[in-house]
Amino acid sequence: MTHIRDIMTQDVETCSLKDNVFEVAVKMKELNVGVIPIVENKRLMGIITDRDLVLRCIAEKQPPSSKVEDVMSENLFTVTPDTTTQEAARLMAKEQIRRLPVVDNGMLVGIVALGDLAVRDLTDNQAKHALSEISEDDGEQATH
């Protein structure tokens, strides 16, 4: 059985609560990613997705100097390195999310994306099921 530790991205770029929304957006562009975890002393405080930037910043006419706290999602679904890929895929499908922070005692240790699951040869097709469940929803939930 495959565990999240076997497929997660470990070297995750982050921002802190001291950063502003503009700095997060620039980092997303530079890294070509759609999510940046927000951490303080390695503790996961929240995440900001590209969708969060659009809905909570641009659409609300907030300035680029806005605090990350005003835009980030705080009530997160997370997994641990010991979570199985099947459990993670089920959680992603159920909650309609594409990325899961990986935490160990509240500390960010990685991130796993639906794509990470899809490239694995999962015997029970959990990634395929999760993707079909998530794709059925027209609006991705960025807050979880």
From TrEMBL:
User: Which domain of life does this protein belong to?
Assistant: Bacteria
SUPFAM superfamilies recorded: CBS-domain pair
Q: Is the keyword Aminoacyl-tRNA synthetase in the record?
A: no
Q: Record's InterPro entries? A: CBS_dom, CBS_dom_sf, Diverse_CBS-Domain
Keywords, A to Z, come to: CBS domain
Ranges of residues in domain CBS: 8-65, 72-128
What protein does this entry describe?
CBS domain-containing protein
